[in-house]
Amino acid sequence: MKNYLHDMLAANQILLTDEIEAKLIAYLDLLHQWNKVFNLTAIRDEKQSIVLHVLDSLSIHEYVGGTHILDVGSGAGLPGIPLALAFPDKQFVLLDSNSKKTRFLRQVMYELNLKNIDVVHARCEQFQTEKKFDTILSRAFASIKVMLEITQHLLAQQGQFLLMKGVYPEDEIREIPDKFKLLGVQRLEIKGLDAQRHLVLIGANTWEK
To answer: What is the CATH number of the domain that holds 16?
Structure first.
């Protein structure tokens, strides 16, 4: 598994230290252990988990701006944990309303000794914080319109949304409210994954404060 992960990261031009690669393997091991009881993910195959969890999450690494990042509906920690491992200098908040998933995330924090992650058990529309986020991420969490409406209070003035989608979300893009600015849609090329992936980038608070 270690060699497969290293080779697939290299094939996708993602360079990480041996220590970070080892922690990614440790994270996947924990995920597989907990999955037997808590059903955190439908992916059971180890090689598939590297592609569908790790590579998919890291495919947006070059777009993650700022130092204070929110992963909404983090679930089993995707994309938040792989990105937090790749960016130890950034602080990540993993937000989820499912208690069994946040318990798992806290266990990952403890066992991997991750100092740049905080886990919050709450619904995003009820979550409040004084320090707003430079980047808000989501991966297959909700429609773009719903996602923007329930998290806009958490975004910094010059922040951005990075919303991970499968096929090009044409209908969802048409429904983006006028007070938000579409910055672009990037097709993500992931070697080893035979499926479409797109990243929708939406501008910071263009609404009146």
So the answer is: 3.40.50.150
Q: Per the domain annotation, does 46 fall within a domain?
A: yes
- Model-level pTM? 0.95
Rounded Cα gap, residues 110 and 35, in angstroms: 18
d(CA 36, CA 169): 33
Distances (CA, A) of 31 to 79, 89, 138, 162: 14, 24, 19, 24
Written as tens digits, the pLDDT of the chain (209 aa) is 899 999 999 999 999 999 999 999 999 999 999 998 888 888 888 899 999 999 999 999 999 999 999 999 999 999 999 999 999 999 999 999 999 999 999 999 999 999 999 999 999 999 999 999 999 999 988 999 999 999 999 999 999 999 999 999 999 999 999 999 999 999 999 999 999 999 999 996 554 44
Structural domain span for residue 68? 2-202
Output the CA–CA distances (angstroms, integers) from residue 201 to 63, 155, 158, 165, in the order listed: 9, 13, 13, 11
Q: Please compute, for residue 31, the number of CA atoms within 13 A of its CA located in the half-sphere on the CB side.
A: 23
Q: How many domains in the chain?
A: 1
Instruction: Decide the pairing of beta strands 198-202 and 182-187.
Output: antiparallel
Measure the CA–CA gap between 148 and 156, rounded to whole angstroms. 13
